[in-house]
Amino acid sequence: MLDINEIMKILPHRPPFLLVDRVTEIENGKRILAFKNVTMNEPFFTGHFPGHPVMPGVLIVEALAQAACILAIVSSDESVRSKVTYFVGIENAKFRKPVFPGDQLNLEVEAVSCRRGIWTFKAYARVDDKLVTEAELRATFADKI
To answer: Which pLDDT score is estimated for 75?
Structure first.
């Protein structure tokens, strides 16, 4: 398990753009389970949508991408710690149900492959065991400029 302080040692993201609150399980090179507590205090709710707050789908995908990034980093050798992880692709994204304040967004990411430095993942977000979002994601490591 990783708490928020340990996550911030791995990811460069910081609030309000850090979208993973806790990691509950990691199988190196295979799978990660994490979650994001969605609260009314999120800055995006003021404009998305007034009177009917809904978490933007792009931020659900970003939460999945951050979980994937954690999996890739902890599954790789120490040399990647000095690099930045770039999100390089998304395919077959589906948004099945809206996410509201008070929901806990459960993130499950499975590593499919790592070829020529590009990781491929299958990613799923659930609320109360109901699938809300799924996507195929790709990421790679690069030197900081």
So the answer is: 95
Alpha helical stretches, state H, the chain? 4-10, 57-74
Question: Domain range holding 59?
Answer: 4-143
| CATH code of the domain in which 78 resides | 3.10.129.10
What is the average pLDDT across 3-19? 97
pLDDT in tens, 32-63: 999 999 999 999 999 999 999 999 999 999 99
How many domains in the chain? 1
Q: By the 8 A CB rule, do 68 and 136 touch?
A: no
Can 48 be counted among the known catalytic residues? yes
Catalytic residue among 22, 48, 83, 97: 48
- Count of C-beta atoms within a 10 Å radius of residue 23: 22
